Amino acid sequence: xxxxxxxxxxxxxxxxxxxxxxxxxxxxxxxxxxxxxxxxxxxxxxxxxxxxxxxxxxxxxxxxxxxxxxxxxxxxxxxxxxxxxxxxxxxxxxxxxxxxxxxxxxxxxxxxxxxxxxxxxxxxxxxxxxxxxxxxxxxxxxxxxxxxxxxxxxxxxxxxxxxxxxxxxxxxxxxxxxxxxxxxxxxxxxxxxxxxxxxxxxxxxxxxxxxxxxxxxxxxxxxxxxxxxxxxxxxxxxxxxxxxxxxxxxxxxxxxxxxxxxxxxxxxxxxxxxxxxxxxxxxxxxxxxxxxxxxxxxxxxxxxxxxxxxxxxxxxxxxx
Length: 320
Fold this sequence. Notes:
Layout: E1 3-8, H1 12-23, E2 27-33, H2 37-47, H3 55-60, E3 64-67, H4 71-83, E4 87-91, H5 98-111, E5 115-118, H6 125-130, E6 139-147, H7 157-172, E7 177-185, E8 194-201, E9 206-215, E10 219-226, E11 229-234, E12 239-247, E13 257-260, E14 266-272, H8 281-295, H9 303-318
Helix pairs in contact: 4-5, 5-9, 7-9
């Protein structure tokens, strides 16, 4: 069943969402609303999408509201949509504050609607190729470095960049957060441009996250260490590396890599190369949300999970 969808916000990312929803076989794109009239007219003329005059008119015309507005307006837009019984797809971070996010969860339960948060890295093909192999990681290291772009500097780098890695980590570590230590430095913006955080979980897992938006090159890498395995995910290059260990055979082959520890136990190292299948991660996240609505299942990145990521991000910022 085609789901009627409308987009709030026709900026850089909003235009991408509009294009993909127009292509999708799961959605019927009804139109969009952008408060900047000149921008709305330009997008409408250039691409032929219907521009609505008010938010209310757009919400009334659709089943799903796709919120691709600045973070500060997420809460008001989502609240209006949910209160009218509409499902919401909302870009990350879910809202500006944890209290706002918790209110949206309550409202969505009350009005029986579904919500998904746009944590797009969960749909990155490099991550989906290895996520089932990540089992009880005990040390995680992430680096997310970006070249300077004034577009994202209205929020701290933690909410802009690091939150991607926070969400990915929370999705694979099945334990509660115990402690958070962090530091941040403002170099060019009013809020920190570089941040480092150490998250300790109750099960002993430790995650060390670094994010910067004033780097000379782009880098988005995560490394997961667990018993008998090391898994690396390059979200930028969409590549993976999986190194595993198993008990060494009695008679190793000439090309087998065998390590021996101090106790004399021999382990064989072997490499797995999972297939990374090219995809459009934004289209995937939007279409899996349509599936969740049609099949009445929980969205892959629920409002609760988006709130958990925001809560940890906020704790990191509070600790600066």
